User: What shape does this take?
Amino acid sequence: MIVPLNSSLSSSIPPWTIHTSRSAGTNKSLRPTASLIPTPDSNSLPQQSSIRKCECYDMYKQVVPFAEAWAWQKSILEDRKTLIDDNQDGSDTLIMLQHQPVYTLGTASTENNLNFDVKDPPFPLYHTERGGEVTYHGPGQLVMYPIMNLRFHKMDLHWYLRALEEVVIRVLSSVFDLKASRVTGLTGVWVGDNKLAAIGIRVSRWLTYHGLALNVSTDLSPFSRIVPCGIKDRGVGSIKGLLSDSWSMSDGELIDIAHESLLKEFCDVFQVELSHQPVSSLLRLPKRKQ
Assistant: This one.
């Protein structure tokens, strides 16, 4: 049974320079390092002159039901819209977590890409309003949900999608020495023919939600029950599956390393400073109608 919850775009944008610096110290407040982001007019212009605050709800070691995380995003989104109506500027927000096993469908999804009966799915199946096709979320996969006001970054969905890709590309290159890339005409991050990061977003009044998912130590077998992102001629992969034998780390250690680097590169690419918030405050958010 599909549980209703109520785009992917690509363009030719010059690639970012890959930065290999590592963050240091605690992660209580992460500040971006000098990072130049290209615009359509230049490959080397700073995207914004000031650093924006980004509230961070970091649950990266927790496995959270999809519906619960979706409700949090929706509530924060509606609060931000209210601030816009009152001509106020709310900070950006980032939620980071793992999910319980789940399949999600985007606005472009068709049941032809499901290799199971929708009335009897192997895991919960949700129809969402994000762009893109079907994907899988599960333990070992780090999910980032940025809720950002693009009025204070760049009012360009192509730019935003490429920026999310850039965060992952930098992580894979600088920390894991994996040669990651984009694929023309597709959204996401790839190593060879294997997709390691899926991206699906929704934007309302230039406020973003949904986001990206990076396979770190994910069990990839549930992907065999779908055509991931509707792409039939390419596969999916994980960081763990692509690392050489010289990386003798537990799944938990890989998650820790990927988590730290994702936060650092997110700050650099979007020029934000993270302000870590108590997760308990999410539980007090008002429930929104779906």
